[in-house]
């Protein structure tokens, strides 16, 4: 899958969908599957358009929702689903001020060569969110809207998943996501204090986005073709005065070298409120 930011050269004729796709949950997956099937059947490139930062992070950062997935994780999941091209639009003052008509003409038509556009039934865009599905049908490409997917009678949404995670209901979150909620990144060198007391940890420094939960969790990870289990602390490291966001994981019965490697830890269950994973005696 190709990943691009605007400006970019005009693409081959494309089937396009637009959204934040945070978590790439089962509702998003339904949209993507329909997109890729249509693109393949009509010799079009399948294109997903998303935003970085997410609109609410730019418009009201103090009230922005916690993220379910980083841009990297989102891109990896979309690639797994067969998307040809991910276009990342920088959400800034210029994009915010674009009228709905200017967005359609300058982005969808001139840059993306859109022939078919699929959006959710509640899709809004453009300055003051004046663009909608009926507005889009005024242009020379086909438009289809897809009703929201429901699970157990509830509309699937990133908000619903955040709520499940905040309540440590990881089974419910997994049902809505289509897979376990996971955090990923590259292991970096820490202070190696845990190793001195026989509890080595793999330390991943997380992006500065808000997270949907914190605390201590039972986790599992796929490493070297095997599933290994452990316990992880998600949050700052107040014991050593570090207030950045970390995923600090101790794996049971594993002594391999993880520094510099990337992996994902899937949350299985919550073990309580934020506490020190390691208590150090000085």
TrEMBL record:
What's the superkingdom here? Bacteria
What biological-process GO terms show up in the record? FAD biosynthetic process; FMN biosynthetic process; riboflavin biosynthetic process
Enzyme Commission number(s) of this protein: 2.7.1.26, 2.7.7.2
Q: Does the keyword Kinase apply?
A: yes
* Pathway(s) this gene product operates in, as recorded in its UniProt entry: Cofactor biosynthesis; FMN biosynthesis; FMN from riboflavin (ATP route): step 1/1; Cofactor biosynthesis; FAD biosynthesis; FAD from FMN: step 1/1
For this protein, what reaction is catalysed? riboflavin + ATP = FMN + ADP + H(+); FMN + ATP + H(+) = FAD + diphosphate
Where does the record place the Riboflavin kinase domain? 176-269
Tell me, what is one Gene Ontology molecular-function annotation carried by this entry? FMN adenylyltransferase activity
Q: Does the keyword Nucleotide-binding apply?
A: yes
Tell me the keywords, alphabetical order.
ATP-binding, FAD, Flavoprotein, FMN, Kinase, Multifunctional enzyme, Nucleotide-binding, Nucleotidyltransferase, Transferase
Report the top EC class in one word. transferase
NCBIfam families according to UniProt: ribF
Q: Its function?
A: Catalyzes the phosphorylation of riboflavin to FMN followed by the adenylation of FMN to FAD.
Q: Entry's PANTHER family? A: RIBOFLAVIN KINASE, RIBOFLAVIN KINASE/FMN ADENYLYLTRANSFERASE
Q: Which family does it belong to?
A: Belongs to the ribF family.
Name the record gives this protein: Riboflavin biosynthesis protein
What is the species of this protein? Reinekea blandensis MED297
